[in-house]
């Protein structure tokens, strides 16, 4: 989507340059910087963020204000699913053009102050607003959009990526999801995940299926417009297959019945993902592209992936490598926007480890799983695509869909079937008559497992790193859990050191 950097309480433009230049990949198409009172702000955008000609885009001043008469400026990275409904009800004078979301947020902020965050319950966002004196920063409930802050000698710094801040200060922190901050660096929580299940809305399976289809279709329509060259990541799992089917239908409706959506799959050789993605591509008659890679290609790419990812968690790095490779390949095919099925596992309880818990414990475990997103799967979604200057859109990450799914009884998300449980059962059932049955009922696999990287990487590092190397490192850094993680940790340490940057790294529950 985009990137930004902010310096508050120090007028040193060279520091701002350092911050924003470090994340130029997040928006090489248009960028701008301003100095306003106590604040310095810089923003950059991808071409897909501003679907105009190059000449038109250069004329647009960034960071954005909502009117020529306002001192308030916004640095913003995000997407508002229900932006049109908010415009109609709150700001009918906002036009449908560049920076509509930024201008909408600014008008909401001027009307409601921090309470405006209540209106962004169907949005992913990281933002900083200032009039030169005041400061307001915020991040969405799940932390889908990344944001970090740092301090040095009474100055506050904000940036979309950790690497920017570490050029200036070692006192760095991940901005907590569901919080906002004022100019005194006071953090306030404005939203949190529920502690108990909401009231059940439907008990009839048909009603649930109709509602799920309706919400997902609405979320897709609100987020995807095909104005920029658009493709779809396709792993052959049900999440990406649902998004690819929706995109294929919408693409034909917009451009004609013979239009073929571009889909992209990756595998280490003839992996499961390649085979199932090929099946789904045939089903929707997409213009399908496959990228086959080997171990040497993955190993060569690891330093770049960890640099962009800012993590050393093994399960995350494995899937990130695959994501980075296929995103880069799509960019080479002139794709500016990639659609992703990210979010389905968290919303409909798709992770296999959840099967080990009793039904009455599952809601708490699902909330825990959603709480991992901010520095795990969401990090991969953001960094691996923006590292290649590609905008990513995930229609299943929807506030409306999440709220409805939480009201569905757990036994329909993880449905007992004899001695087993079927993960995401109600989601699968919803699309049973639309997608190939082999895809609908395919066992859940993480991206790295299906693509093949989860098999070859742990085995490779087990042979490459000696036992005593791991033991020595664990004596100083017990967070390192395996030889594979040690290799990634060394790369992370080279790029980011071992200070407070380590505290921003999330680790998945298993290796």
**Shape, principal axes of CA atoms:** globular
Radius of gyration: 22 Å
Order of strands side by side in the largest beta sheet? 2-3-1-8-7-9
Fraction of helical residues: 40-55%
Mean pLDDT: 93
Biggest sheet statistics: 6 strands, antiparallel
According to CATH, the homologous superfamily of the largest domain is HUPs
Structural class: alpha+beta
Low-confidence stretches: none
End-to-end span in angstroms?
30 Å
Our count of helices gives 21
According to CATH, the fold-level topology of the largest domain is Rossmann fold
Walkthrough of the structure:
The radius of gyration is 22 Å and the shape is globular. The protein contains 21 helices and 18 strands. With 511 residues, the protein is α+β, with helices and mostly antiparallel strands. A hairpin with a 2-residue loop joins strand 7 and strand 8 (155-159). Helix 9 packs across helix 10.
Brief write-up:
The chain is an alpha+beta fold.
Task: Name its key features.
Rossmann fold; alpha+beta; five-stranded antiparallel sheet; 3 domains; 511 residues; 21 helices; Glutamine Phosphoribosylpyrophosphate, subunit 1, domain 1; globular
List the helices and strands and how they pair.
Blueprint: E1 2-8, H1 13-21, E2 30-36, E3 39-45, H2 54-58, E4 73-80, H3 83-90, H4 100-112, E5 123-130, E6 136-139, E7 148-152, E8 155-159, H5 162-165, E9 172-174, E10 179-182, E11 187-189, H6 205-223, E12 230-233, H7 238-255, E13 262-268, H8 272-284, E14 287-293, H9 295-309, H10 314-332, E15 337-339, H11 344-348, H12 359-371, H13 377-386, E16 391-393, H14 399-406, H15 410-413, E17 415-417, E18 420-422, H16 425-430, H17 437-440, H18 447-451, H19 453-464, H20 467-476, H21 483-496
Parallel strand pairs: 12-13, 12-15, 13-14, 15-16
Antiparallel strand pairs: 1-3, 1-8, 2-3, 4-5, 5-6, 6-10, 7-8, 7-9, 10-11, 17-18
